[in-house]
Design brief:
Elements (H helix, E strand, L loop, with lengths): L3 E4 L3 E2 L5 E7 L8 E7 L6 E6 L5 E3 L7 E6 L4 E6 L8 E8 L7 E3 L3 E5 L2
Parallel strand pairs: 2-11
Antiparallel strand pairs: 1-3, 3-8, 4-5, 4-9, 5-6, 7-8, 9-10, 9-11
């Protein structure tokens, strides 16, 4: 059974930084596109950042220049470096792994809470 386990969420002051990690227990990790999503209270889940099997990245406009997604295929892990955090970044952050050609291979982590507050 595939599992994605996020870690790194915390309470941080505005302007601070956090690094989220997501470890995947999936074979052929390098064949999956990966993403970080977030969901704030009362809002829909939204894409924050994504990275393809080839290393191409894209970001939500609200985090461009502040967040960086990366992957380490040797460790089956995807990261989200978050800098210059704002209160509006407060949300539960979820990791996603999806196979680009097999739609059923779409997995989610349980989420990690990020709170930005003074």
């Amino acid at each position: 059974q595939v599992q994605l386990v996020e870690s790194g969420g915390d309470l941080v002051q505005p302007g601070g930084s956090l690094r989220l990690s997501c470890a995947a227990s999936v074979s052929l990790f390098n064949m999956y596109n990966l993403g970080w999503y977030r969901q704030a209270p009362g809002k829909q889940r939204e894409l924050v950042a994504a990275i393809t099997t080839g290393g191409n990245t894209n970001y939500a406009d609200s985090v461009k220049g502040r967040f960086t997604i990366s992957r380490d295929n040797r460790k089956n892990t995807v990261y989200l470096q978050m800098n210059s955090l704002k209160p509006e970044d407060t949300a539960v952050y979820y990791c996603n792994a999806n196979h680009p050609r097999i739609g059923a291979y779409n997995y989610w982590g349980q989420g990690t809470q990020v709170t930005v507050s003074s």
